[in-house]
Amino acid sequence: MKHLSKAVLPVLVGATVAVAIGAAFGSWLGQQQTPRVVAELPTGATVLPQTTLGTISLSTDVAQWQQLRQFGTLQSRSLLDGLLIKWRDRLLTANGYDYERDIQPWVGSEVTLAFFPQEGDAASSPVPPTTNGLSINSVEQLPAALILPIANPEVAQSILTKPNLTNGQTVTTQTYKGVPLRQVRRQGKTDYATAVLGQNFVVAASSLAVLQRLVDTEQSGAALAAVPSYRQAFRQTAAEDFLGRLYVNAPAVKAIATANASQPSPILGFTPLQHNQGMVATVALTSTGLDLRGANWLPPDSKILYNVENNAKTMPERLPADTLLLVSGGNFRQLWDAYSQPGAGVNPRNPLNPTMLREGLSSTTGLNVESDLLSWMDGEFALALLPSPAVDGKILDGKIVDGKTMDAKQALSFVFLVQASDRPAAEASLAKLDSVMSDRYRFQVSASQVGGQPLVQWVSPYGSLAVTHGWLDDQTAFLALGENASSSILPPPASSLKASKAFQAAVSAADLTANNGHFFLDIERMLNAQTTLPMPPLPLGAEAVMSAIRTIGVTAAIAGDRTSRYNLNLNLQQTSPNDPSPLPSAQPKTPEPSPSQR
Question: Is the pTM of this model over 0.85?
Answer without folding.
Answer: no
